[in-house]
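Exercise: predict the fold of this chain.
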Amino acid sequence: MLFAVTLTYRTPPAQIDEHLGPHRAWLADQTRAGHVLFAGPLDPPTGGLILAHGEDRAALDALMASDPFVVHGLVDVTVLAVSPALRHADFPARWAAAAQAVAAA
């Protein structure tokens, strides 16, 4: 299942900056493991967005609980589960197996 996860900053930028390195390392580890498909800051800089893959919501919640931003109470986390119906043909089927592939024009 895919999840759209938004992180909304709860603390001043200086506190976010203190934990940015460990947060980015966590994201890199989760990306290597296939749990995070992409992640990045929002514009305006109020937080970030993660597209994640997991077995179910409980697995995602456990994953997010290990994010340094969450561990230190720096962000509010909002999760939306997504059941893809369509995917671009270049998007890996393993992350959206039930979605119909649509080729580029």
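Check your answer against the key: The mean pLDDT is 96.
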